[in-house]
Each structure stands twice: as C-alpha cells, then as structure tokens.
Design brief:
The chain is α+β, with helices and mostly antiparallel strands. Helices cover 23% and strands 29% of the residues.
C-alpha cells in the first residue's frame, strides 16, 4: 500500500550526538543512550530506518557513502537510512532522513512500507523498518552523506558485491530478503 503523508508531518533536525532509544526484543523502549556510546558498546538494540528508491525499470538507486562517515566510509548503502532518535517514530525518522539525505519530500512523493527486521530474527544490525520510494528521478543527494550513486537491479547489486565492492552490512541482507527471495513480491 502506497502512503502519502500530510504536509503537516513533523520534521526535526538533530545534532551529531543523537540520543537513541534502546529497545527489548519486542521493540519496546527500555532506555536511552548517546549514539556514540551505542556504537562504542557495540549494541544492536536500537532503531533505524532504511529505504530503497526504485524506478519503473526495477532498478534501485544505490549510493556510496562519503569518506567522512564514522561507519562504513565509501561503502555502498541503502538509498536512505538513519537512526530513529529518542521520541521519534519510525515514520517520522524516515521523513526526516529522506529530506536530509536525498531531498525528497514524502508529503509529495509516495512510498510504501516493506517490512520490519530485527537483529535476532533477521540477522540485521539493528531493529529497522524498511520502505520503498517510487521515483524515476536521480535524487539531489546530500554530498556530506554520499559521493556517487548507481541505478542497479538487485541482481547487479549482488554481483557488484561478489566482485569485491564494499557495502554496509545490511545492504545485501535486505536486497536478498526483499527483492531476491522466493517470497519477494
């Protein structure tokens, strides 16, 4: 089901030292911690959002992260991704991240929810909701986040990774589960 959010949906900006909600196995908030501490302690019980921009030809827009990223510099990434900060919902975080990273206004561009994935059940890095944005346009991406990008089919993404290109750890898992598994639709 495609969703269009009302123009009044809140968007908030956060500094580099975000406060993240820690969650239990049921994705219920059990505490908060600074983002840097979450990563220093190698925790996986926090929330993120990810999205793929998909065109009419079945290609996904896959960017390469900038070299100044703390984690996975110069690696291939999902089209949009980021942390759900304390007090945010997954949807609010997704709206903010889409605006910040690829300058897409989700009050105008339709998107759909693809699924929820967890570290325990799905082997993901964190608890996450994943979305798909339908667009044939090359995003006007934030050059602080990304340095280049490619339109590729899911099969081309997996081939590129098999040939040695580096990616964030969840990229191949999500592409496989969402677009290449027998249950993908």
């Amino acid at each position: 089901m495609w969703v269009r959010l009302p123009p009044s949906a809140p968007i908030s900006m956060h500094d580099d030292e975000e406060i993240l909600d820690l969650v239990n196995e049921k994705d219920e908030v059990i505490g908060q911690m600074k983002r840097s501490q979450v990563y220093d302690e190698r925790l996986h019980n926090f929330r993120v959002v990810n999205a793929f921009i998909k065109n009419d030809r079945g290609q996904l827009w896959i960017p390469r992260r900038s070299k100044n990223k703390r984690s996975a510099p110069l690696c291939l990434d999902m089209s949009v991704g980021g942390h759900v900060t304390t007090g945010e919902t997954y949807n609010t975080s997704f709206i903010r991240e889409a605006q910040e990273e690829v300058r897409i206004d989700l009050t105008v561009i339709p998107f759909k929810f693809l699924g929820k994935f967890t570290p325990d059940k799905d082997g993901m890095y964190a608890f996450q909701q994943v979305y798909e944005i339908s667009s044939n346009d090359e995003p006007d991406y934030n050059t602080d986040d990304f340095v280049e990008a490619f339109w590729m089919t899911p099969e081309e993404i997996m081939e590129r990774l098999a040939q040695g290109d580096k990616a964030k750890s969840d990229l191949p898992k999500l592409v496989q589960k969402i677009y290449l598994s027998p249950m993908a639709g």
